[in-house]
Design brief:
single chain; 39% helix; 13% strand; 347 residues; alpha/beta; globular; TIM Barrel
Length: 347
């Protein structure tokens, strides 16, 4: 059985009977976890192991663990700073910032790998333009070159811990005032005006970027459809112009920004036709049976191969990780940032 194109979420801290049945479908490729799925390290590790044991090859288990206000697993997980704090540090002390962002990537990935999670949807590489309320302090920096540099260092830290990165939200959410979670988000700039926003993607793709998450932002000057449902953005530009060969993942298709495309089943089909390898459908369990039914017979061998490459690597338990010299060094470095008056770990 191969990894399918649909990623779903779970209601609680254990697998329900219908969820277990959905995971058996060859059309499901993975699970995204949220705060509601987390009670303790031991419980989380058991849940992840149960998801992985449901199928072969194992389903992907993912989470949004960026840091700041977007960190689904909190205590006893290390509290990661919002990315903006790292960008501000870069403006003050470049070398320290580069060390800190690599440490953040490693800490995030190492702790997640210690409980079996394959992938975190991070980093956010939207520029800090001060326009998008949903991005805010999730942005690393206002300059594309700096975002690219910091993201590469974050990726290096994550890779050392056995995890690939996912750059988001392609092509950018930085120029849209509206939050695509709850509103229809539009960026009226021409393609040429997006060059700075796209710079981190060009840089990361040149350095073997494994995955991209596509935003539900509409760029009318390029295509009338949101980028997540646009073959112009995904097939022509991301794959063609930029030469991206990794996995393309949609943002959550239950979000308002994607609702213009019709029912959840219609949105899923459009996203796959546009070039997505994996589509997220969250907080809509009642829709999953219908979506699975609508996808019967769907097969994409190239996508399956790209998704398989996203599985985490390495095997270390929670206690051994936290007793290691590497963890002590990395956590001490990042914790020291709290003492700097212009920086904050609050998100």
């Amino acid at each position: 059985m191969s990894l399918g194109p649909l990623m779903i979420d779970l209601r609680g801290k254990t697998l329900a009977a219908d969820e277990r049945e959905w995971l058996q479908s060859p059309l499901v490729g993975g699970v995204i976890l949220f705060t509601r799925n987390f009670e303790s390290v031991e419980q989380l590790a058991r849940l992840v192991a149960e998801i992985h044991a449901a199928r072969q090859p194992p389903l992907l288990v993912t989470v949004d663990q960026e840091g700041g206000r977007v960190q689904r697993f909190r205590e006893p997980f290390f509290r990661l700073p919002p990315f903006r704090a790292l960008g501000r540090l870069y403006d003050e002390e470049r070398e320290l910032a580069l060390q800190a962002v690599a440490a953040c990537g490693w800490l995030m990935a190492a702790e997640l790998r210690a409980v079996g999670v394959d992938l975190s949807f991070a980093p956010c590489v939207d520029l800090d333009r001060g326009l998008s309320k949903v991005i805010g302090d999730r942005a690393l920096h206002r300059e594309g070159a700096v975002v690219a540099l910091l993201a590469r260092r974050f990726a290096a830290g994550a890779k050392k811990a056995g995890m690939a990165i996912t750059a988001k939200h392609f092509p950018t959410h930085a120029g849209a005032h509206s939050d695509s979670h709850t509103e229809f988000a539009v960026d009226n700039r021409e393609l040429a005006e997006l060059d700075e926003d796209l710079r981190p993607y060009r840089d990361l793709i040149a350095n073997s970027l494994a995955a991209v998450m596509v935003a539900h932002v509409c760029f009318p000057a390029v295509d009338s459809r949101p980028a997540s449902l646009s073959s112009r953005w995904i097939s022509d530009y991301l794959r063609g112009e930029l030469g991206f060969k990794g996995a393309v993942i949609s943002d959550d298709l239950s979000m308002t920004g994607a609702s213009v495309a019709g029912t959840p089943a219609e949105r899923v089909r459009l996203a796959l036709e546009a070039g997505c390898d994996l589509v997220l459908l969250c907080n809509a369990p009642e829709q999953i049976p219908g979506v699975l039914d609508s996808l019967k017979g769907y097969v994409n061998p190239s996508a399956q191969l790209r998704l398989t490459r996203l599985h985490g690597r390495g095997d270390i338990d929670w206690e051994s990780l936290h007793a290691s010299a590497d963890w002590q060094k990395a956590s001490a470095l990042v914790s020291s940032l709290e003492k700097r008056p212009k920086l904050t770990l609050e998100g």
